[in-house]
Design goal:
The chain is an alpha/beta fold. It has 28 helices and 23 strands. The strands form 6 sheets. Strands 1-8-7-6-9-10 form a 6-stranded mixed beta sheet. Strands 11-21-20-19-22-23 form a 6-stranded mixed beta sheet, sandwiched between helices. The longest helix has 36 residues, at 320-355. The radius of gyration is 40 Å and the shape is elongated. This is Hexokinase-2. Residues 22-75, 86-174, 426-621 form the Hexokinase N-terminal domain. InterPro entries: ATPase_NBD (IPR043129), Hexokinase (IPR001312), Hexokinase_BS (IPR019807), Hexokinase_C (IPR022673), Hexokinase_N (IPR022672). Keywords: Acetylation, Allosteric enzyme, ATP-binding, Cytoplasm, Glycolysis, Kinase, Membrane, Mitochondrion, Mitochondrion outer membrane, Nucleotide-binding, Repeat, Transferase.
Length: 871
C-alpha cells in the first residue's frame, strides 16, 4: 500500500515538474483574460473597419456580404446543395438516378470570395494549402458552369454560392431559430453572423439583416497580433504556402496545430529538454504530427499511452517524463487556439447584443469542424472562455449534424423561390421591352397615319389628325413690339407680357401664374373662360396695362381644328379637362365673349397657338434649321413644317405650313394594340376619356406614374412586392406622380433614398421592393421614350423623303418636364431616332418657354406678315 502511495506521489511530482518546465518554455503562449479582452477589442475594431466602404480595402477581417438575408423558418423549403468536382457530381447524379433532371444546386465553397449577388463569387485567395491555377480573381460559379457544360448529362442551375460557415449557421438555424452565428474550427477556421443591413456600407439598403462572412482567418495580417505571435508561429508561417497571410488561422485551425506542436518539440529536444536531446528524422519532417495526433494525446485517460505510441512511431524513445511534457505542450497549443477563437467570437456576440440594444443577449452559435468535433477538450474550453468574456450573453453552442450541405440546400431552396418570383417579375417587365422589329412597326404605322391625316378623303378616319395651324412662316429677326401671351395647357394658367427687340434677337418676358381649380376644369365652358379673363384682368392691373390694346397670342394646348390662325375649334378635351359646352366651339370666340361679358378691356387676339407650335417657333428664333416641335411633358404632341402641296385640307401648293399632328390619338383605331398591355388598358379605362389618346397614355407624364401604380398593384397581388399587402395609398389613383419616376430612376439615388420616396407615398418597402420598383419605373419610362422616338423617326424620315435628300439635317425644338427632368428619357429618345432614321442628322434643342415666348413670336410673325400683305 505504501509502495502504491509512493508511486502516486512520484508520478504527481513528476507531472508537476514537467508541466512547470513546459510552462516556463512556452510562457508566451499562455494568454491572460486581460490579453483576451484586448484581442476582443482589436477584433471588434477590425469588424467595423471591414464593414465600411472606404475602410474595407485595408481591413484584415474582410466582412464579406453573402447576400443570404433570411434564417430558415422550418417551412419545408428544400433545395439541393453540395460541393464537389464535376466528375464527382456526374457520378453522384448517375448513382442517385438524377441524370438529365433539372435541379437547383448550391455550391458550398470554403474559401474567401467577394460576392455581388448570391449566385456569384470572385475568389480572393486560396487557403488551406489549395493553389489551383487560373481560379483566383475569377467567378467560381462561372468556372463550375463551364466544367458542367463538358458533361452533357448534368442539367443543374447553380443558384447559390455558400461559404461552409454560412451553411453551418443555416443548418443549425433550421433546428434553433435563435441561431445567428456560425463558426467552423477544422482544417481552416471562420465565422459568420447576421448583421444589420444599416451597418453594411458595402451593400445598398438598410432593411433587415444579411449574413456576413467575416473571413477571420486573416485577422492580424496587418500586424495587429504581432505582440502575441511566437517564434514558432513565425517559423510555421515562413514555411507555409502563403507567408504573411491567414495569420490568425495559423494560430487556431486544425491544419496547423500539429505542426506547431512539432516545431515546439523539435526546439525542446535541441535544448535537451526532451528525449535526452535526441531527435529523429521524422521529428525533423514537416507534417509528421497532425491535429488528430494532438487530439489523441490530450484524451483524458488514454492520453499518455497514446502519446508514447505516437512518439515511438516518430522514431523517438520517450520516457514517462517526456510523455507528460509532450501532452502538456499539446494542451497549451490547443488551449491557446480555443482562447483566441473565444475572443473573436465574444467580439461578434457583443456586436450582436449592441445591434439589438439589449442588456442581455440570448443566442445560439452553430458549430462545425473536425478540431471542434474530435478534440476531447476543445469544445468545453471554448464554451467556458466565451461565457467568461461575455457574461451578459446566454450562449448555446449547437453542433451541426449535417455539416454545411444542409444549410447550402436551404439557401438554394430560398434562392430557387426568389428565382421563381424573379421570373414572374421579368414576365411583367418583358411586356414593356420593345424589339427593334416592334419599333419599326410603330414607325411605319405612324407614317401611314400621318399620310391619312393629310389627305382629304382619309382625314376623318385618321387617328393622327394632322391639323393645319396656318402658321406659315418662321421668325426672321425683324419682329418687334409688345405682345400678350396666354398659356392654357394644364392645372396652371399663365399670362405673359413679351417684349421683342428687332435685329438683336432679344426677348424679355414678364408673367404671372394662376391656378385653375378642379371645379373650374370640369365645370362649364363659361365658368372656365370667365376665370381666364379674371386672371388676365389681374395681370393687366399688376402690369399697369389696363387701357392698352396689345396683340395677343393664345397658347391653347388641346386638339383644335383651325380654319385660320385666329380661329380654333376644340375637337376634344385632354389632360383632365372636362369643361362643358366647349367641344365643337371656337375657343377664340369663347375668349372674346368672356372679355365682352367683363366689359373692362379689349384685346387684339391675333393667333391661337398649340404649345408644340410655340416650342418649334421659340427654337426656330435661334436656329433656322428648326422645323419640328416636340412636347414630352404632361401631354405628348409634335408639330412640324409640312410642304403645302401635301396638305389637301388647305388650298395652295406653295411654301410650307406648320402641322399640329395631335399624335396623342395615334392607336385609337387599334393599330398598336399588339404592344398595349393590360396595365395600359386599366389606365385607359380609368381615365376621363376611355378609348382616346392611347399613344399619349403610353408616352406622356400624366399617365406613366399611373401605369407604374397599376403594375405595382398587380405584383403586390401576386405576393411579389410589399409583403403582399396593398396599402390604401397604393389603391389611390394618381398617387404615383411621374416626378417620382424621375427621382427614383436617378443614377445618383441610392436604394435607401428610393425607400424614403416610397415611404412618402405610404409604401412600406424593403430594399428588394425598392429594386423592383426602380426596375418597373425604368421599363415604363424606357418604353415611353422609345415610342416617342419611333414616332419622331417617322416624321424626320418623311421630311427627308419629301425634300428628296440623301441625308437630312434638321433641328427639333423640345419642351416638357418628362424630357427635361427625367434622367434617361431624352437619351433613350435620341438613341431610338438615330437607330430608326440613320440618314437623318437630328439636333435636339431645348425650348425656353415655348408656350409663352413662342406664342408671342407667332403673334409677331403673323403681324409682320399681315403688314407685308397690306403693303
Amino acid at each position: 500500500m505504501f509502495a502504491v502511495h509512493l508511486m502516486a506521489f512520484y508520478f504527481t511530482k513528476l507531472k508537476e515538474d514537467q508541466i512547470k518546465k513546459v510552462d516556463r518554455f512556452l510562457y508566451h503562449m499562455r494568454l491572460s483574460d486581460e490579453t483576451l479582452l484586448d484581442i476582443m477589442a482589436r477584433f471588434q475594431a477590425e469588424m467595423q473597419k471591414g464593414l465600411g466602404k472606404d475602410t474595407n480595402p485595408t481591413a484584415s477581417v474582410k466582412m464579406l456580404p453573402t447576400f443570404v438575408r433570411a434564417i430558415p423558418d422550418g417551412s419545408g423549403e428544400w433545395g439541393w446543395g453540395f460541393l464537389n468536382q464535376t466528375d464527382c457530381l456526374a457520378d453522384f447524379m448517375n448513382t442517385k438516378g438524377l441524370k438529365h433532371k433539372r435541379l437547383p444546386l448550391g455550391l458550398t465553397f470554403s474559401f474567401p470570395c467577394r460576392q455581388t449577388k448570391l449566385e456569384e463569387g470572385v475568389l480572393l485567395s486560396w487557403t488551406k494549402k489549395f493553389k489551383a491555377r487560373g481560379v483566383q480573381d475569377t467567378d467560381v460559379v462561372s468556372c463550375l458552369t463551364r466544367a458542367m457544360k463538358r458533361h452533357k448529362d448534368i442539367n443543374v442551375d447553380t443558384l447559390a454560392l455558400v461559404n461552409d460557415t454560412v451553411g453551418t449557421m443555416m443548418t443549425c438555424a433550421y433546428d434553433d431559430p435563435y441561431c445567428e452565428v456560425g463558426v467552423i474550427i477544422g482544417t481552416g477556421t471562420n465565422a459568420c453572423y447576421m448583421e444589420d443591413m444599416s451597418n453594411i456600407d458595402l451593400v445598398e439598403g438598410d432593411e433587415g439583416r444579411m449574413c456576413i462572412n467575416t473571413e477571420w482567418g486573416a485577422f492580424g495580417d496587418d500586424g495587429a497580433l504581432e505582440d502575441i505571435r511566437t517564434e514558432f508561429d513565425r517559423e510555421l508561417d515562413l514555411g507555409s504556402l502563403n507567408p504573411g497571410k491567414q495569420l490568425f488561422e495559423k494560430m487556431i485551425s486544425g491544419l496547423y496545430l500539429g505542426e506547431l506542436v512539432r516545431l515546439i518539440l523539435l526546439k525542446m529536444a535541441k535544448a535537451g529538454l526532451l528525449f535526452g536531446g535526441e531527435k529523429s528524422s521524422a521529428l525533423h519532417t514537416k507534417g509528421k504530427i497532425e491535429t488528430r495526433h494532438v487530439a489523441a494525446m490530450e484524451k483524458y485517460k488514454e492520453g499518455l499511452a497514446n502519446t508514447r505510441e505516437i512518439l515511438t512511431d516518430l522514431g523517438l524513445e520517450p520516457s514517462e517524463a517526456d510523455c507528460i511534457a509532450v501532452q502538456h505542450v499539446c494542451t497549451i497549443v490547443s488551449f491557446r487556439s480555443a482562447n483566441l477563437c473565444a475572443a473573436a467570437l465574444a467580439a461578434i456576440l457583443t456586436r450582436l447584443r449592441e445591434n439589438k440594444k439589449l442588456v442581455r443577449l440570448r443566442t445560439t452559435v452553430g458549430m462545425d469542424g473536425t478540431l471542434y468535433k474530435i478534440h476531447p477538450q476543445y469544445p468545453k474550453r471554448l464554451h467556458k472562455v466565451v461565457r467568461r468574456l461575455v457574461p451578459n450573453c446566454d450562449v448555446r453552442f449547437l453542433l451541426s449534424e449535417s455539416g454545411s450541405a444542409k444549410g447550402a440546400a436551404m439557401v438554394t431552396a430560398v434562392a430557387s423561390r426568389v428565382q421563381a418570383q424573379r421570373k414572374q417579375i421579368d414576365l411583367v417587365l418583358a411586356l414593356f421591352r420593345l424589339t427593334q422589329e416592334q419599333l419599326v412597326g410603330v414607325q411605319d404605322k405612324m407614317r401611314a397615319e400621318l399620310e391619312y391625316g393629310l389627305k382629304r378623303d382619309t382625314h376623318s378616319l385618321a387617328t393622327v389628325k394632322m391639323l393645319p395651324t396656318y402658321v406659315c412662316g418662321m421668325p426672321d429677326g425683324t419682329e418687334k413690339g409688345k405682345f400678350l401671351a396666354l398659356d392654357l395647357g394644364g392645372t396652371n394658367f399663365r399670362v405673359l407680357l413679351v417684349k421683342i427687340r428687332s435685329g438683336r434677337r432679344s426677348v424679355r418676358m414678364y408673367n404671372k401664374i394662376f391656378a385653375i381649380p378642379l371645379e373650374i376644369m370640369q365645370g362649364t365652358g363659361e365658368e372656365l373662360f370667365d376665370h381666364i379673363v379674371q386672371c388676365i384682368a389681374d395681370f393687366l392691373d399688376y402690369m399697369g396695362l389696363k387701357g392698352a390694346q396689345l396683340p395677343l397670342g393664345f397658347t391653347f394646348s388641346f386638339p383644335c381644328r383651325q380654319a385660320s390662325i385666329d380661329k380654333g375649334t376644340l375637337i376634344g378635351w385632354t389632360k383632365g379637362f372636362k369643361a362643358t359646352d366647349c367641344e365643337g366651339e371656337d375657343v377664340v370666340d369663347m375668349l372674346r365673349e368672356a372679355i365682352k361679358r367683363r366689359n373692362e378691356f379689349d384685346l387684339d387676339i391675333v393667333a391661337v397657338v398649340n404649345d408644340t407650335v410655340g416650342t418649334m417657333m421659340t427654337c426656330g428664333y435661334e436656329d433656322p434649321n428648326c422645323e419640328i416641335g416636340l412636347i414630352a411633358g404632361t401631354g405628348s404632341n409634335l408639330c412640324y413644317m409640312e410642304e403645302m402641296r401635301n396638305i389637301e385640307l388647305v388650298e395652295g401648293d406653295e411654301g410650307k405650313m406648320c402641322i399640329n399632328t395631335e399624335w396623342g390619338g395615334f392607336g385609337d383605331n387599334g393599330c398598336i394594340d399588339d404592344i398595349r398591355t393590360q396595365y395600359d388598358k386599366e389606365v385607359d379605362e380609368g381615365s376621363l376619356n376611355p378609348g382616346k389618346q392611347r399613344y399619349e397614355k403610353m408616352t406622356s407624364g400624366m399617365y406613366l406614374g399611373e401605369i407604374v401604380r397599376q403594375i405595382l398593384i398587380d405584383l403586390t397581388k401576386q405576393g411579389l412586392l410589399f409583403r403582399g399587402q396593398i396599402s390604401e395609398r397604393l389603391r389611390t389613383r394618381g398617387i404615383f406622380e411621374t416626378k417620382f419616376l424621375s427621382q427614383i430612376e436617378s443614377d445618383r439615388l441610392a436604394l435607401l433614398q428610393v425607400r424614403r420616396i416610397l415611404q412618402q407615398l405610404g409604401l412600406d418597402s424593403t430594399c428588394e421592393d425598392s429594386i423592383v420598383v426602380k426596375e418597373v419605373c425604368g421599363a415604363v419610362s424606357r418604353r415611353a421614350a422609345q415610342l416617342c422616338g419611333a414616332g419622331l423617326a417617322a416624321i424626320v424620315e418623311k421630311r427627308r423623303e419629301d425634300q428628296g435628300l440623301e441625308r437630312l439635317r434638321i433641328t427639333v425644338g423640345v419642351d416638357g418636364t418628362l424630357y427635361k427632368l427625367h434622367p434617361h428619357f431624352s437619351r433613350i429618345l435620341q438613341e431610338t431616332v438615330k437607330e430608326l432614321a440613320p440618314r437623318c442628322d437630328v439636333t435636339f434643342m431645348l425650348s425656353e418657354d415655348g408656350s409663352g415666348k413662342g406664342a408671342a413670336l407667332i403673334t409677331a410673325v403673323a403681324k409682320r406678315l399681315q403688314q407685308a400683305w397690306k403693303n
